[in-house]
Amino acid sequence: MVGRTGHGRARRAAAVAVIAAGTVLATPGTVLAAPGGLQPKQPLVADLATGGAPCASGAERPHARSVPQLTARLYGPGGGQPGQVSSVRGEFEAWWQGEGGAGERVTMTTTTKPDTTPFTWQLPGEIPDGAVVSWRVRAVNDAGASAWSSEGAGAPCEFVYDRTAPDAPVVTSSDYPDDDTWTPGVGVRGTFHVTAQADDVVAYSYSFIGGPAGTVQAGADGSAEIRFLPQSAGVQTLAVQAQDRAGNRSSSTAYTFRISSGPAPVAQWKLTDAAGSRSAAAETGTAARAGAGVTFGAPVPSGTPLTSTASLDGSGHGFLTPGAPVVTDTAKTFAVGGWVRPGRVDGTRTVLSQDAGTARAFTLGLTQVAGGPKWSFSVGGARVTGGLPETGAWAYVLGQYDAESGTARLYVNGRAAGEEAAAVPAAGEGAFQIGRARGAQGYRDRWQGEIGDVRAYDRIVVASEVKDLATRAARRLGHWALDTAPDGLAPEEGGGAPLKLGPGASLYRLDDPCDPLDLECGWDFPLEMDGDGHLRLDGVLGHAATDAPVVDTSGSFTVSARVRLTDDEPTTPMTVISQGGEHGDAFKVRFDPENSSWDLVMSHADEPGAPQTVLRRIEAPDGNQGIGHRLTVVHDASVKQVSFYLDGVKYDEGGTAGFASAWKSTGGLQLGRGRTADGWGEYLHGAVDSVFAYEGVLSAQDINQLPWL
Fold first, then answer.
1. Using CA atoms, how far apart are residues 381 and 670, in angstroms rounded to an integer?
2. pLDDT above 50 for 31
3. How far apart are alpha carbons 380 and 334 in whole angstroms?
4. How far is the CA of 85 from the CAs of 111, 116, 381, in angstroms?
């Protein structure tokens, strides 16, 4: 039962009748106790809560945007001790100043309950907005009432009822102004200042379009700063809401700014200088002097814009240096990287470093970990290692120190390698070095091999930029449209090696007459619309093949073909495309009737019974209906992975597998058959069209565009 009294306005009588023999509660604060028996214990402030928040007053009192429920733990005469449970009632009392300063007071007495249970009161909803509400409670039984929780060493609980949202905040930034200015910003952190327009704002919630969302706490003056690292160029919007202590949020302030691509490297040497040069021209920065052990005009990583690189012989003369620092303050954010091909992977070998007295501020190169080579980036005393350097294999390596997070990271071929490490950089104002590192006894850890396109940045190089720097464009090796086959040879459109049709292989052309008694007559059509025919295979001996390998299966490659099965219930495995050696296939794609699946099978060696890595896609057989499926194999040797696409789609799980056992095949590209324990077998009964082969890794976007790429 709830009672309410008002002062300064029309009074309403407030009396709480407690239905219990021998006990009557008069006005709040007055107790008429029955003779005999023991009264309840005084409630403890520590056992009281306002809407889930601990009892508090003054500056610590909670703020609530909805009328809260009050909770108390009450004690009978036994004080809640085990075996001394008793029943009590709770009498709550709350008060505040109403309109015009008039005092308001409400009370409520609960039903009788065991003192082991919580006692609650949902306050009435007419509390005015902005009111500071005080409350207290006491326990009552037939013997009388305890002292109020506010008496003696106790104190009233308080809260502020606040349902008014603050005004929208003001956002400013000198780093990224809200105007039509395009600011070079990818990889450059900026600060946004947020100012409150209310005195009770404690936090700001924010979000960036396509970027992070979060909350930042307001300072003593109600303002805050939001930091942002742009990951891409374009128009960006920051949305910010102010939040008060009660959890009310303001309307959103939208702050729009424009980001252009990140600032250029502070130093860059492509190292494509003419043979015989004794210095390397700088794209930005200072030209680098080349030692006598440097030879320009060395080979390049395929699929890159580089026209040549520099070869370092690993001797004391194999180095390049601008003779000055490139990273002007190693305590700030920086990144260094380039293309490298090690001629040796033993010991410790340095690609890039910067002098710090008789030591070095940072080094990027390779080192030995657990008896084997690993790529390495060290800053101060911290080192990150990862990836697998291979003699004669190109890799793009980049080391990065993030001063804001205090961490060092290593990237190999566009992907993070190893675990980022907390780093405390050493001051290093000495000269930047290519191919060597400073030591107490002079320069050491010399590089032997090729280096190209060295870059240094004074900002973060974001993930998409690292990937772009390391990307090697795929190079088309072959496209067989399978529309014609003069003299039994299906030509490669660029004049490359043709596919020779074997027994049981024929071409279907749209303009060819067909046998009316053939059940397929009238139903066949080109599978790909880039031509007017396709290859038909009889499933007995039908196949087509090149005389020599098309792709280097030990390196990165992409192979793709469209296929349609003739049968709706195949009984034996059938290989669509393969390339292998004498005993097995380096790769093959086949249909497995047992699982009703298309399988990519990667053999670990050219040996009978060699282990295999298999990626599987469940799919019903075509039964000579429709246009079939485009099957694509991608082997990325730089990260030792293989992927399998069906109709341009790769599963997030099971679409990619690690594969570190690639080997160089010696046999030609095969359509319609694969190697088995008994020799050639797994002949395809179906149609194949529009076959592609690439050196390198074709992107998922490009795979989706086949055959129109």
1. 53
2. no
3. 13
4. 16, 7, 64
Q: How far from the centroid of its chain's Cα atoms is residue 659's Cα?
A: 23
Which pair of structure tokens corresponds to residue 216? 């930042």
* CA dist., res. 250 & res. 703, Å (int): 47
Q: Output DSSP code: residue 15.
A: -
pLDDT of 379 over the 60 cut? yes
Strands 279-280 and 288-290: antiparallel
Beta-strand relationship, 669-671 and 574-580: antiparallel
Residue 424: CB atoms within 10 Å: 11
Nearest to 549 by CA among 497, 590, 503: 497
Q: How far from 479 is each of 355, 505, 550, CA to CA, in Å?
A: 51, 18, 11
Single out the residue of 342, 339, 350, 352 nearest to residue 307, CA to CA.
Answer: 339
Cβ-contact 154, 72 below 8 angstroms? no
- Nearest-angstrom CA–CA distance, 552 and 474: 13
SS3 letters for 41-76? ECCCHHHEEECCEECCCHHHCCEECCCCEEEECCEC
Q: What is the tens place of the pLDDT at every residue in 37-82?
A: 799 999 999 999 999 999 999 999 999 999 999 999 999 998 767 7
Residue 520, CA distances (Å) to 213, 427, 624, 686 in order: 59, 77, 8, 12
Beta-bridge partner residues of 234: 259
Q: What share of the chain is helix, strand, coil (3-state, %, to 5)?
A: 5, 45, 50
Tell me if the bond preceding 169 is cis, omega within 30° of 0. no
Q: Give residue 12's pLDDT.
A: 27
Q: How far apart are the first and last CA of the chain?
A: 79
Q: What percent of the chain has pLDDT over 90?
A: 84
pLDDT at 428: 85
Cβ atoms 360, 380 nearer than 8 A: no
CA dist 143 to 32, 37, 90, Å?
Answer: 9, 5, 14
Average pLDDT, integer, range 332-351: 98
Task: Quote the tokens at residue 469.
Answer: 């720097």
Closest CA to 102 of 8, 5, 3: 8
Q: pLDDT of 516-565, one tens digit each?
A: 566 555 455 668 776 788 999 999 999 999 999 999 999 999 999 999 99
With b for 16 or more beta-carbon neighbours within 10 A and e for fewer, the 519-541 pattern comes to eeeeebebbbeebbbbbbbbbee
Among 56, 33, 58, CA closest to 46: 56
- Split at pLDDT 50, 70, 90, the class of 7 is very low
Q: What is the mean pLDDT of residues 513-517?
A: 60
Radius of gyration of the chain (CA): 39
**Arithmetic mean of pLDDT, 359-377:** 97
Instruction: List, in order, residues 6 or more apart from 387 with CB less than 8 Å away.
Output: 374, 375, 395, 397, 410, 412, 413, 417, 418
Q: Which of 484, 479, 469, 496 is nearest to 558 (CA)?
A: 479
